[in-house]
Amino acid sequence: MKYQDYIWDLGGTLLDNYETSTATFVKTLEAYQKTANHDEVYQALKVSTEHAIECFASEIDQFLTHYKANELKELENPQLFVGTIELLQWIQDKGGRNFLVSHRNNSVLAILEKTGISSFFTAVITSDDGFARKPDPESFLYLKETYRLKSPLVIGDRPIDIEAGQAAHMDTYLFDDMQQLRKYIEKENNVRRNQTGHESAGI
Questions:
Q1: What's the confidence (pLDDT) of residue 101?
Q2: What is this structure's pTM?
Q3: Distance between CA 58 and CA 73 in Å, rounded?
């Protein structure tokens, strides 16, 4: 098989949260008597939270703290993308390993519990672990060394996920939906299986 280990992003990849995050960002701005276009905020958040703040709230002290606190309240009932549990289970059943790297703090652990996917992950890295933020590859390199990753696939929905994976010399996949992702994994692993000329017990 080509891929045995999978490094996931959370928001916008496993967690279908961008609409919630955008609405919360706009609402937090309104608390400071500022307004912003919903679609423009959405696109800015797709780049990164820091980029959105730079675009719309760079002069507001503590905006990130207030925004994240408001967002956490809205994420009390988090929603996964359709097919998330099935794909994580499929990877695990085939002998693969799932890892998570998120810019969020340890609130991620509660989100994983609420969505019922915490047991699928071999390791979870959050901002509380102190690694440099993506696109710096530090957290990916830590996973590679600690868990002896040989041919991992980095999965994320933003350029910073892809840049971090490439900087760590890992294959990457820009997320669109779970169905397309599974097709890609199956195709790549079948190509690898055909090249080696034998079946593998893994994925």
A1: 98
A2: 0.83
A3: 23
